Structures are given as structure tokens and as C-alpha cells.
From TrEMBL:
Biased composition (Low complexity): 149-161
UniProt keyword annotations, A-Z: ATP-binding, Hydrolase, Nucleotide-binding, Protease, Repeat
Gene3D superfamilies, per database record: Clp, N-terminal domain (1.10.1780.10)
Name of the protein described by the UniProt record: ATP-dependent Clp protease ATP-binding subunit ClpC
Record lineage: Bacteria, Bacillati, Actinomycetota, Actinomycetes, Streptosporangiales
InterPro entries xref list: Clp_N_dom_sf, Clp_R_N, CLPT1/2
Species, as recorded: Nonomuraea wenchangensis
Length: 283
């Protein structure tokens, strides 16, 4: 049986030893689940996407994430794109407008309008059609061309629902990020991490150029989730003793979330500033 090494932080390794956790069995089970999820995503056609009754690889996606995939597929089809790319996914995330990933970007002081402008500049031009093969004037016995099937246009439209290779990789990375965080769902915040980490897609290039470096973004997402859980618990407790939510509560929650994120990110920002000053990148 092949052997795969698993590296753990020192404190976790010590805790595993003390608890007597059967590492091999646990790792095999976790890897089996991860392989099933990733394989299912690779085989998914967005043309089969049902927002109300998700199946297969889509089961673990949140409603907002499924909406983003649907919007991305629609955008790709409208542009006549052969596949759904990472740019379509990021654009759909912006269009959806209410997901946690956007709060993370704002907290990182990355303007959503700037993301949209940079994304629009990266839209690839339409592919020129292949030149027609010249007819053979000397052949008189050539069979007449076969008429195109009536559903050719529909087939082309369905093709636009397939994920490009970078987009599929980004979605796979989103799943692995969710698993690494111990989550049993894939939200837009995980998709953001997948887009940032994927090296070849348009979305990752745009986001990284604006400062969404993978490690920093992962820290921001973790802080956002921690802040969200804390705020939701406080909100539910307040709602239990109040007949109706206070006016502007959503804005207050967003402001508190942003404050929480900035508090978590400040040590990293200060460290980067010191490194830049030390290397001469900043006066």
C-alpha cells in the first residue's frame, strides 16, 4: 500500500499523540471525501445547475455560491464564450452583491468598483472563426454538405456552461479551502480563496494585483467568519428580547465586521510595512 506523509503543526501533532487518534484511518476517510468532492466538481456541467434542488457536486455549495455559478454561466453564454472562466466567476460574485467575499474585499480596502474595472480590461477578445476550407473545383462527385442539426445553437449554448480549466481548478481549491477550515459547506468566501490561489486565471491575476495575496486573504476570511459568528450570536440574543430589529442593523453589522477584520489584519499590514521599509521599497 502506498505511503503518504502528512505534516502537522507541532501542537497538533502532540495533541494527536496524546489523544491516540488513529491517524491513518482518519486521513484515509478525509481524503476519500475530498477526492469525491473534487472529482464531482470536475464532472459538473453548469447547464444542469438547479438552484432549488442541488445535486452531486453542488450539494455542498451555499445558495449564494450556486447563484454566483448560475450568473457566471449566464454571463459566459451572453458573451458567446465557449467556457465559464474565472473572470466570469469573479464578475458574478460582484453582480450577486451580498456575499461574504465582498465584505472581505472591502475590509482589505480593495474597492469593488476597481475590481470590476480591472476585470473588464482583462476580458479576452472574441475568437475569430476559423477560415472556411476552399472548395475543390475539380471534384464533381462531392457529396453536398450535411445540414447542421436544428439544435446546434442549443448545443453551443450548453457548451458555455462548462468550466474552463482554471475555473474548475479554482472551484476545487475552494472545496479544499473549506475542508481545511473544517467547514461542511462551500461559500463565496471559499470561492474567493480559490480564485486568489489559482495561478493562471484572470480573476486571480486581477485580485492579486490589487493586494489580495493568498495568505492575507485567508487570514481575512478567517477573521470575517469569526466576526460573523460572534455578531450573529449577539444579534440572535438581542432579537430574542426585542420585538423587531433596530433600523440600520445591517449597516451596523457590516461596520462591526469591518472593524473586526481590520483588527485581525493590522499585525500583518504592520509587518509588511516594516519589511518594505527595510528593503527600501518604501521611504
Amino acid at each position: 500500500m502506498p505511503k503518504i506523509n502528512v505534516y502537522l503543526p507541532d501542537d497538533l501533532a502532540e495533541a494527536v499523540k496524546e489523544a491516540g487518534v488513529p491517524v491513518s484511518a482518519v486521513c484515509q476517510r478525509a481524503l476519500e471525501q475530498a477526492v469525491r468532492r473534487v472529482t464531482a466538481i470536475r464532472e459538473t456541467s453548469l447547464g444542469d445547475l438547479d438552484l432549488e434542488k442541488p445535486t452531486g457536486a453542488l450539494t455542498h455549495l451555499t445558495a449564494r455560491t450556486r447563484t454566483v455559478l448560475k450568473l457566471a454561466a449566464d454571463a459566459a453564454r451572453a458573451q458567446g464564450a465557449a467556457e465559464v472562466g474565472t473572470g466570469h466567476l469573479l464578475g458574478a460574485m460582484l453582480t450577486e452583491g451580498t456575499n461574504l467575499a465582498l465584505h472581505v474585499l472591502r475590509a482589505m480596502e480593495i474597492g469593488l468598483d476597481q475590481v470590476r474595472r480591472d476585470l473588464d480590461r482583462h476580458v479576452p477578445p472574441a475568437t475569430d472563426p476559423a477560415p472556411a476550407e476552399p472548395a475543390d473545383a475539380d471534384r464533381t462527385d462531392a457529396a453536398p454538405p450535411e445540414p447542421a442539426p436544428a439544435d446546434a445553437a442549443d448545443a453551443a449554448g450548453a457548451g458555455s456552461r462548462r468550466l474552463s480549466s482554471p475555473a474548475a481548478n479554482a472551484l476545487e481549491l475552494a472545496v479544499t479551502e473549506a475542508i481545511a477550515l473544517g467547514h461542511n459547506y462551500v461559500g463565496c468566501e471559499h470561492l474567493l480563496l480559490g480564485l486568489v490561489a489559482e495561478p493562471d486565471g484572470t480573476a486571480g491575476q486581477v485580485l492579486r494585483a490589487l493586494g489580495a495575496e493568498p495568505r492575507l486573504t485567508r487570514r481575512a476570511v478567517s477573521a470575517a467568519l469569526a466576526g460573523y459568528v460572534h455578531l450573529r450570536a449577539n444579534t440572535q440574543q438581542a432579537a430574542a428580547s426585542a420585538p423587531a430589529p433596530a433600523p440600520g442593523q445591517a449597516q451596523q453589522l457590516a461596520a462591526l465586521l469591518k472593524t473586526e477584520l481590520k483588527t485581525e489584519l493590522r499585525p500583518i499590514v504592520e509587518r509588511l510595512e516594516r519589511l518594505e521599509a527595510h528593503t527600501g521599497l518604501r521611504p
